[in-house]
Amino acid sequence: MTSRLFGTKAPLLRRFVASVMLLSMIGGVVISVVIATAQLNHLNTEKEQAARLQLENILDSAAYAAFNLDSAQGFSLLKGFEGDHLFQEVTILDNYDDVVASIEQPHHEDHLPGWMHALLPVHETYTLSYPLSFKIYRDSQFVDQHVGNLIGLVNFHTSEAEFYDLVWTICLSTMAEVLLIAIILTILFHNQIGRPLSKIIDSIDKNAKLARQKNARLLKIDGHENDEFGLLVHAYNNSVQQAVSYMRELESAKAELKALSEIDPLTNVSNRRALLSELNTLCNNEHPFALVSLDIDDFGGYNDANGHQEGDVLLVRFAHALKQQLPQASISRTGGDEFVCIIPSQSHQQTVEDLLTPLLNVAVKEDVASTPWISTSIGVAFFPENGHTPRQLLHATDIALYVAKEAGRRCVRFYDKDADIARSNREAVRKALQRIIETKEFTLYYQPKVSMKTGLVTGCEALLRLNHSERQQNVAHVDIVEEAERTGLIVALGREIMRRAFYDVSHILDHLPDDFRFSVNVSPQQLTSDGFIAELLSCSEDNDVPLQSLDIEITESSQMINTDSTNKVRNWLKNAGVTVSLDDFGTGFASLEYLLTYGFDQIKIDRQFTQVLPGDDDAKAIFNVVKYLADKLDMAVIAEGVETLDQETYLLNQGFEYAQGYFYAKPLTIEDFMRFVANRQAKHSSCLDS
Question: Which residues lie across from 451 on neighbouring strands?
């Protein structure tokens, strides 16, 4: 039982036994101190009473000795206290506190331990003082007269030594009793609690080992069926049964989830998770392979036309075609109509292209709607040439696939670093465009339009310029405009530019000539967009700038076709007093019919023709034709890009009046533009007056 009681498997029992023994010892000491303290006080009280009795017996004799100042009688009287360890010292004093007689016992060294003095109310000595009086005859009668004092210093050392023995006797007896109780309680605890608990622990350990083999058995403990241990075992058995059932279900669910987590349920090929895992393994093995990204051309349109159910059938068919054409490849569907294939041990472009070419046109079964063939776009990257990690390789195939789509689809393209850089630059431009539209953090510069005859400023063109933060990203304003037109965000960007132009002009309009017009470039998409007219009215009213001060410049574009929408907008602009200019004439898609049907107010000849004047005969011919057409159609002409005096002189001699270019001023901030206008007015007005 001893080994069982203090064995390694019963730490709780060991702690219980140790705690009971420690508490028993502390309790015995405390009880002993309390009893000893009471006994000490009792002994001291007895000693004090005995000392008082002895001193009171010699009061009269001591008073006589004190009255007569008889030291011999006093010493004789105190002789009886010699050897009495009850007193440390006895003294007779006269009425002036002078010693008449005194006796002092030899000093005994205190050998009691220091903790005794700290814990117990131990007193070394106690002083007893009695006044002495003697009857004398005075004024025909006897009266008591104070003649001195009898003082006794009681010594308690003897009682402390006795008490020391008493304390140890009490402590030992108390500790023996408490220890006996602790042993009895420990045995009782072991039999009633420790042993059943040990059995339960052993059974749980055995069940835990069996559970690893999926063969757990129920726990039983005899003799405790109806007590708390029986309830504990019953609850444990229930939990074991539930846990075993749950673990079996969990193992089954894990197997299903693992399969689902790595297999695309529609096409039964690997999914993106399995693809990344396989790519990690291949990259670590460092064997060359080709990574191919494919998607079905215009799959979204196919879904819209035939429904998603037919689209799913098409995906299954395409996955089957991939397996047949690339039997050695690992095929994954990463989402939608996007598939990725790993072709092992391939690093030659021509070999891979030969394998993939049949997949550019895939035959579809006749029961898949009415489309017997589908085409695909394919991008290819190689390990390790184009990347060393799954992320790098997938990025490379995305770039190659993007190039394939840009090339017109239904083709194979390999990763190209220059294309990667170009796409990164385009992405930077796209992000900058979105920031500009969202935060409106851009600036408008204004390039003056000048009358070459008078030298005065007749208008200006608002030009987009980026703030410093965007320029730091190596993004140009030209790239911003091109990206906006490509993505359709030109409508939102043009709306913000229009608002800013109206706001800027509202601060300087009172200082400008009455016939002054500011020009804003408007995309054909913006011109025909919903709300364009309402936006113009709002800008005019909010900034108190009349629409008659606005000129809209439209760049030649194939999108600028003659439709009811454009005609409606043009008529409204004409009635509102807004002029419309054809910008960059000669570089786009304009035709004579285009000029006639739309009815522009001004034609701006592109700077590439102006800059070769006056020496280029072809440019001269173009200017002559444009001048003739403009006169016939009642349109004004503005020459863009005038940079030299010779160019201005030639244009004036040919009858042109309006020009724009660095010869007059570069694009200016609104403040610098106002100073430029004021200087030109001051300079050329004086010339005109003279």
Answer: 658
